[in-house]
Amino acid sequence: MVSLELESVATMFFMVPMKQSLVAFVVIWSVLPCILLSQHQPGRTLLLRIDGVTQEQLFGTGIVTLDEYDPRSLVSLVRDTAMVIATRAEAELLRERGFRCTTLIEDTSTVRLFRRARYGPSMNLEPPLHSYSSILHEIDSFRKSHPSLVKVFPIGRTSQRRQTIYAVRIAHDLRPDQHRPTILFNGCHHSDELLGAEICLGIVHELTKHYGIDPQITRWLDSFEIIVVPVVNVDGHDMVTSGGDPRWGKNARDNDGNGEVMFTEGVNLNRNYDFNWAHGGSADPADRRYRGPYPFSETETRAIAELAQQKRFLLSISYHSQGEVVYYPWNWNGRKAPHDRLLTDIARGLAGSIRTMRGDTSYRAEYGAALVGQSFTWLYGVLGTFDFVVETGKWASFPPSGEVESIVRANLSGVRYLLSRAEGPGMVVNVKDAVTGDPLEAEVWLPAIESEDVRRRTTRAESGTHRQLLSPGSYEVIISRQGYETAVLRTVTIGASGWTVQDVALHTTH
Predict the structure, then answer these.
(1) Is the pLDDT of residue 64 over 80?
(2) 426-506: what fold?
């Protein structure tokens, strides 16, 4: 019987006017072999475990690809054990070449093959990985056991299922204090990158457990406000951790509006931020890099943005998987970020503090691209937050359960490093109205550093305070607000440690 594709081709041919039939025949004849070939491609129905193998050996076969969302791809490579989806012929070829292949499951369903590869024999999420409900349960237990240190609060709801996105505030004094340095840690912009949530849980546990015992942690919680958002992409995280589809990386937006969310739908939240949004990601809703119909179209990214605008984070880390690399701002067609020297120094220190899974070296630091609507470009480019993307683990978006604890522990060393950098050196500017004494939101511009690539930094409206890290040296600082006379601080000297405070009173122009 003729297939649907061939029926369509035949219909196309007979509907063409006679004088154009020759051209149509040539076109159809050229695509016919491709159609026939696609109908006889062998199915990728085997999940293979390949032991004692390296990535170079795998990619050298020509069978395995780099794209983890492609059924031909390397699903995972943890230490020297790979999970690969293959045809029977490819499996035989790999065995003939000396690879030690074991067939774990044969199935015509790609989803089930991925589930077996990522969840293990149970085909369901295994401890110590957490579902969102178990994450909330643990967070609530932290709150109850440390009520003077921990506050849990909502920052928004998800785009599709309207689930609450929660944040954890950790500080010795939980009363609002606009003058404290604030630091953000977040995980799971991409729903299949589960390690971010686990590290965030580890951060809450580490800080609360050791307050009053560890002198460094005690000093940090006495001085800082630390915000942790374990799961940004709650809907997608649920889809992955429920055992539904471990390939899911986007949120759960119903792109076509038919009431049913299918694989490849959703928006990539880490392409949805409003900084160079149009230059990155993809406009194709089926693409895993789909950036959404417009910047901040998703409530999840708006929740992070509103939180960041309120808190004006000094430093932040967004956890992703995988690669054992720290990305930072930025390479913009060869242009570096205005604070490049300091950003590079912090990124290298952060990367150097985190050991790889093998334990024989540390993460590496690399520039991230500026022409993409990611969280780190928006946080730095718009608000001035020094944000770092930490890609955790190696060759698996989430690793076998036995690897989780050691990866979390390694990244807690990176948390300690970042918190130590939040102690300075840097500058604090407090701006107020010269007559009323009320705090003012004003621009704070360092002309020797900042370029037009970034938006002007401003003080917080509630406190009139702006804080930023700086390398030791002397700087000219210009403070301005419409309706007020501009203040120029010709020489602000930043020492080797601590914070240089500048109190500025602005006079109105009338």
Answers:
(1) yes
(2) Immunoglobulin-like (2.60.40)
